[in-house]
Structures are given as C-alpha cells and as structure tokens.
Amino acid sequence: MFIMRSLILCGLMFTFAVQAGDRPRDLSEENPFAIETMAENLGVVWAMDALDKETFIFTVRSGKAGLLELNTGKVIWLSGLPEVHAQSQGGLLDVAVPPDYVSGGWIYFTYSKPGLLQAKTTLARAKLKNHSLTTWQDLLVSDSASLRNIHFGSRIAFDGKGHLFFSIGDRGMRSPAQDLSNHMGSILRLKMDGSVPKDNPFVSRRNAMNEIWSYGHRNPQGLYYDPASDRLWEIEHGPRGGDEINLIEKGQNYGWPEVSRGKEYFADIDVGVKYQAGMQEPRKVYIPSIAPSDLLVYSGREFPQWNGDLLTGALKLRHLNHVVLDSDGNPLSENRYLQGLNQRIRSLALDHDGRIFISTDLGTIYRLTNNKRENK
Q1: What is the DSSP letter of 65?
Q2: What is the mean pLDDT, run by run of 10 residues, along the chain of 376 residues?
Q3: What pLDDT sits at residue 30?
Q4: Are 167 and 220 in contact (CB under 8 A)?
C-alpha cells in the first residue's frame, strides 16, 4: 500500500489570450487542483490510458510497459513487448485502449521499430493476459525510415466507428511531409484490423499512400477524436516558435514545411511562408513554443465547466495548457497550470470520473482532482 501525497498546488497559474504577446494575468488564487502522486521513478512515461475503473496501462519510452492499480498505487510490469529503437525521441510510444474495450480485447501501441541504422514508426496491437502482452501484431510498419532519431509522432485516436487514426512526424527531413508517396508528416486512418478504408482520400491516387488522411505535419505528438463534436484534433511541434493546434479534415494539407509560423534554429529566418492558398490554417499557434506533448478534449464530472475544452502538456515551458473553445471549435482563451511543478508534462489521460492524470519526464504519474467541487 503506497502513501498518497495530497496537497493543493500553490504554484503560479497564468491565463493568456489567444493572440501572442498579450500580458498574462496572475490567477494563482484560482488554481483548481489538488494533486496526488500515484507512482514515481518509472522512467519517461510516454503514454497512459484507462483499462477500467481501477487500472491504467502505461508505456515507458525505453521499452517497458506496466499496469498501475489506482486504488493501491501498485505497479505491475508487463512482459511480451517487442524490441524497440530507444534512441533520442524513439522508443515505445503510445498506448491506446479502444472505447469498446472489454477484458482480453485488443490494445493498440505505436513504437519505433528497429531497422538497419534507422527506425520506422509502427502501429501494433496486442492482448493482455495476466501480466503479459500476447498475440502481438504489427499492423503497419510505416514508410518513415530516417537516419535521424527524431519526430516519430506518434499518437493514436479512435473514432468509435470502426477506425483509428495515428500520427507520424516528418522524421526531421521536412520535405517528405509534402510527398504523398511516403508516410512522413502525416496522419493515417485505418480500420481496427489495420486494413485501409475504401473512403480514405488518396485510395485512388497513383503514387500516394492509401493510409494517409492528412499531411503537411511536422511532429504531431497529440491527437484526439472528440465524439461529442465529431472532430479530430491534433497538436504538433513547430520549429523555433509555431507550435500548432489543428482541426484535422479529410485529405487536407497543413502546410509544413512550406507554411509555418516558426523560425530556423540557426538564425532569425522564417521557415517557409506564413500563409499559402490551399493549405489549412491552424486553429491556434504558440509563439514562443511551449513544446506540446499529449492532447485530449476534456469530458467528465470532475471539472464540468471544462467539458469540450482542450488540454495539452508542455515540455519546454513545463505546464498543463488549457484552451477554452467556443461551439465552433475556435479558441477563446488559454490557461496555464502547474508551472510551479516545474516538470516536463509528457502524457495526459482521464479516468471514468473525469479526474486528470499527467505523467512527467521525471517518471512520475500524478492525479489531479477538483479542490473546489463540493460533495466529491
């Protein structure tokens, strides 16, 4: 039995308007969270998801996966994992539990699959039996090989209609994100068994990958399908400035690297242009970069006033980012929480009651609850 450490965070929380450059407003007295440490010293917890009301499954980038018992804090490490390319940004990446999951059903993963001096972002699935992952299947070894160990993506989202989406970065090579003959810089759409839906946008186009749903992405590390609004949201890293929140639409080009709000790392030079006809505009841009990680659309009883809003982690600026949306999916305002924690927030998840779980690169999983809700 582990000891829950519960305290009300007293760190600063800032609110930013959508336009860059507005002065922050100090709302530290309005911090809504109580925080509990659920597990520590796990490694870089890249992803986590709820298996049921009592158990989370999580991945560690180095190649491990485990179960976290929410009532006791006990961590159970799993066997049956494949070899992963755990170099730089690569390794064991996302884990996602389908909305219709029942015990013994398929659980989905992405990882960087080793190859000769390079690796490829790969979608896989397996079944959990006792404390082992069995019947491991690589559903798609993507065409994304690169000698650079960066920009693997990679998140999974389910639409509840028999499809899944997953994201792949440009692998640090930029121009392939505009080339439909490979998977780099794309969001892919597959059936749950890994086959290609006939209504994917490029199925009938020559020299195009049938799996591609959208393209022109740099490094999408957050992806979430919101069933309430039937919207697919994505967040991606810009270069130096220019992180983007995008509303993903079928067959659309999101511009990278021809269009960007970011600058080169080596000089104060724009990457591409800021606008171009025929390419989709982001719903929100972060300048300077926050270095976003996971993304979700909030739904639940714990913070009912946030239902329908976006939450994302920030790696560089080390906070939980909250974007308030209107009914059309346009950003109205932005809040920044947990800056006093001073940790890179890597992954987000919700339990069945809407309590928020975050993981950090220090290997800690925290649970956030509403310190102002009565009759919890």
Answers
A1: E
A2: 37 34 37 92 97 97 97 97 94 97 97 91 97 98 94 95 97 95 98 98 96 97 97 96 97 96 89 92 96 97 96 97 96 95 97 96 96 62
A3: 59
A4: yes
Sign for the pseudo-dihedral over CA of 17, 20, 21, 27:
positive
Structure tokens at 258: 């021809």
Largest CA distance in the chain: 59
Taking the C-alpha atoms of residue 171 and residue 185, their distance in angstroms, rounded to an integer, is: 8
Residue at 7 is within a domain: no
Residue 373 lies in a domain: no
Domain coverage including residue 331: 13-360
- In sequence order, the β-bridge partners of residue 165 are 157, 189
What pLDDT is recorded for position 78? 98
Quick one: how far is CA 342 from the chain centroid? 20
Q: What is the pLDDT of residue 116?
A: 83
Active site residue 151: yes
Using only the alpha carbons of the chain, give its radius of gyration: 20
Q: Are 141 and 168 in contact (CB under 8 A)?
A: no
Answer whether residue 375 is part of any domain: no
Catalytic residue among 85, 151, 237, 322: 151
pLDDT of residue 17: 31
> Residues 215, 185: contact at Cβ < 8 Å?
yes
Dist. CA 49–CA 76, nearest whole Å: 15
How many distinct structural domains can be found in the chain?
1
- The domain that holds 46 is classified in CATH as 2.120.10.30
**Cβ(355)–Cβ(287) under 8 Å?**
no
Tell me how crowded residue 51 is: count the other CB atoms within 10 A of its CB.
18
Rounded-to-integer distance, Cα 349 and Cα 295, Å? 9
Cβ pair 83, 114 in contact under 8 A = yes
How many alpha carbons fall within 13 Å on the CB side of residue 232? Answer: 23
C-alpha span between 148 and 151 (Å, rounded): 8
For the question of whether the overall pTM of this predicted structure is more than 0.85, the answer is yes
Is residue 345, in this structure, part of any structural domain at all? Answer: yes
- Which residue in 210, 89, 82, 87 sits closest to 136, CA to CA? 82
Strand 75-77, strand 64-69: pairing: antiparallel
Per-residue confidence (pLDDT) for residue 373, from 0 to 100: 66
pLDDT on residue 32: 86
CA distance readout (Å), 281 to 244, 255, 325, 332, 368: 9, 8, 16, 17, 33
